[in-house]
Amino acid sequence: KSTKQAEMLQQQIQLLQAQIQQLEALKMQQEKAEQKSQKQEAEVVVDASQETTENTVGANLDTYS
User: Fold this and answer.
1) What span, in angstroms and rounded, lies between the C-alpha atoms of 13 and 59?
2) Which ranges constitute the DSSP H helices of 1-65?
């Protein structure tokens, strides 16, 4: 069972790493954006993604602990 848990956690880590890469890409786009409106839109997307990620991690940790 512990092996199964380890595999599940490894999958979650890989998913989170992919999400982090997406957030970093968004952040770079945001920094390149010259217009304030574009920056504000990017910030909203990043905030929403981070919140989703945190909720996912929290739920997964609850499941495995």
Assistant:
1) 13
2) 2-32, 36-64
Give the pLDDT band of residue 34 (cuts 50, 70, 90). low
State which amino acid sits at residue 30: Q
The pTM assigned to this predicted structure is 0.45
Tell me: the pLDDT tens digits for 11-31? 999 999 999 999 999 998 888
State the Cα–Cα distance between residues 17 and 7, nearest whole angstrom.
15
31 close to 22: Cβ distance less than 8 angstroms: no
Q: Give the orientation angle of helix 2-32 with respect to helix 36-64, to 10 degrees.
A: 170
Q: What tokens were used for 59? A: 């739920």
